[in-house]
Amino acid sequence: MYFTSEEATQMEALCEQIIPSDDGPGAREAGAIYFIDYALSQTEPHLQPLFRDGLKQLAEAAAPQSFNQLKTEQQFAVLKRLESTEFFQRAREYTIIGFFGDPKRQGNRHELGWKHIGFENPGMFSPPFGYYDAELLTGKKPGE
Question: What is the pTM of this model?
Fold first, then answer.
């Protein structure tokens, strides 16, 4: 919704460096880019200039190639130069949220982040809710 196709490609490559797919699913598989795109277009539009400028800095640091075309070691070196910037800090934060956050916000596709750490989502509204559901704890049916 927010990123251009090229920006999304570069941002996804950055996310993949933050949470790689080495020993399990990474940011790419969990769709962290979709969470970041959602956040920038729906809940955090004031951060749009920060991300757009940051992606320009990323492109300049990777030139003459695109960031996603660099080898892993080269990408890491570029990010080391940018790690003190607010852009990188926000990109890191939002990648982590996109990996572990609520899938309703477009990230954590198929709950991959949760499965990776063994988290089981019990659901927000699981009984017993309170005293009026106490019979559920006894195993009796209501009215018995």
Answer: 0.77
